[in-house]
Design goal:
Layout lengths: L11 H7 L3 H4 L10 H9 L25 H29 L7 H24 L1 H7 L1 H6 L3 H4 L5 H43 L16 E3 L22 E3 L14 E2 L3 E2 L4
Length: 268
């Protein structure tokens, strides 16, 4: 039997509260050790409540889901092409004065305006050439013209099919109108850009080709192509797809070509 078996141990917790430290015996109150962790646990009752940092929210922006169908976008492009001729003539007039000297402070503003106009033309070319692909890749757009009731044998399915055919017909008509208006202006625009490229050696503006059926190819990784999980929200093309006579010498390194979760810089 242990010699300490009969020793009576007092109430440890009680004695711990009633005991006095040597400093208190000497009359000097010892500084209390502040334990923020212990105080927080005592106050909240759980270590899970210690953090005041809000839960990490997803940094990925929600993909836009209210983009109009291609037929509506093409009608907007038709209106833009109607005003493009006047707008480009104004740019030509300003350019003839501002670009006479590269040191003219107005030359930068004119070039920025011209770059913005070309971005609109490039976006129009992608919407026109990628309109069929967007119907296959944009799930929200496809569901808006779903013919599910027809597959289930319920009434209303034929009506949706009729709407789908009407939408396709309207889309083709708008695309044809876009191409027609573009052919009326492309000649003067090409000659204008050629003069700009000669006057300003640091720029090389290329005029895209807007057509109903432009070849689209998938670029290879050796060309610097980068893939993305989603297609462009506006035109429906993928990040590594290239439109003939439009996507030439693409640089896709520092967000100059593509914005994640949205699409082409020109389409935004």
């Amino acid at each position: 039997m242990s010699p300490f078996a009969d020793d009576e141990w007092g109430d440890f917790e009680k004695e711990a509260h009633e005991g006095h430290s040597p400093a208190e015996t000497a009359g000097d109150e010892a500084p209390k050790n502040i334990d923020p962790l212990g105080e927080a646990v005592e106050r909240t009752g759980s270590l899970l409540d210690l953090t005041d940092v809000p839960q990490k929210q997803s940094l990925e922006p929600a993909a836009p889901s209210n983009i109009p169908p291609p037929s509506v976008l093409l009608s907007v492009i038709v209106n833009n092409l109607h005003t493009l001729s006047t707008g480009m003539h104004d740019i030509v007039s300003a350019t003839s004065v501002a670009l006479m000297s590269s040191e003219n402070p107005d030359s930068d503003a004119v070039l920025e305006n011209l770059t913005a106009q070309l971005a609109i033309i490039k976006a129009s070319a992608r919407v026109t050439s990628g309109r069929k692909l967007r119907w296959k890749r944009d799930k929200v757009l496809a569901q808006s013209m779903s013919i599910g009731p027809a597959n289930a044998g319920r009434s209303g399915g034929m009506k949706l099919i009729g709407i789908n055919r009407t939408e396709t017909r309207r889309e083709d008509q708008e695309a044809a109108e876009v191409v027609r208006l573009w052919k009326q202006q492309v000649g003067s625009l090409k000659s204008f850009l050629a003069r700009i490229n000669v006057q300003q050696s640091e720029v090389d503006f290329v005029l895209p080709d807007i057509s109903e059926n432009v070849p689209i190819r998938t670029a290879k990784a050796g060309e610097g192509a980068v893939t993305a999980t989603k297609c462009c929200f506006l035109c429906g093309l993928k990040r590594d797809e290239r439109v003939a006579r439009l996507d030439v010498n693409v640089e896709d390194s520092f967000s100059e070509w593509w914005v994640d979760h949205w699409g082409h810089v020109d389409c935004i």
